[in-house]
Amino acid sequence: MSRFFEELDYQPTAIGPISLRRRRELRLDVDVLEILLGDEHLMSDLFTTSEVALAEYGLGAIADNRPLSVVVGGLGMGFTADAALNDPRIESLIIVEKLAPVIGWHESGLIPLGKRLDDDPKCRFVEGDFFQMAAGKTGFDPVEPARKFDAILLDIDHAPDFHLAPAHAGFYQPDGLTQLQQHLTDGGIFALWSNDPPDAAFTARLQSVFRSANAVNVPFYNPLQDREFIQSIYIAHR
Hints:
Oligomer: single chain
Distance between the termini: 51 Å
Strand content: 35-45%
Largest sheet: 7 strands, mixed
Number of strands: 11
Radius of gyration: 17 Å
């Protein structure tokens, strides 16, 4: 019999207090693990279809069988990174996470997928600001500055126009997306998760910067509200 509520950790960060908690969702008779930033719900392990789809659609857009070097922006509960590691082409996976407590929860095993990610020799956590790294020349790998990657998978903000911090807004404009391209190999893929259905205006913005771009609907059923929701994955080719 699980507890109805348990706070597993609570730590201050530069952008506010972050907490990891487990609660019993009585309507579904399951335990839910979730991360909150202050009072704002960031993510949980209750609905993970689109987090997995980010890796599957993003890496699936690369047609050949060459070894892949990949960046995941935003660690969260680890579902995107875990799904990426299921691709046998993965040679190197860097996970960029701004919040040190989230990395610590994975390394200590407080988050279930953390042990697999931490133990895999192909996988490495990098503490840093994804958006600052994307805008800079040195990029995402502090060990190998200016390294280029075959795919960059991003799940940090709620949507291209709904950001966790105002400083992120510029990334989604043409200049920010152009700066991101410098970190991709020729033919490389940028894939972006969004909590909202596809936005035609943002897809057009991607198309104005990248060689091609499209958006994919990711439906999932929410039994708590007894209805289907649509999230989305944007895929852009350098």
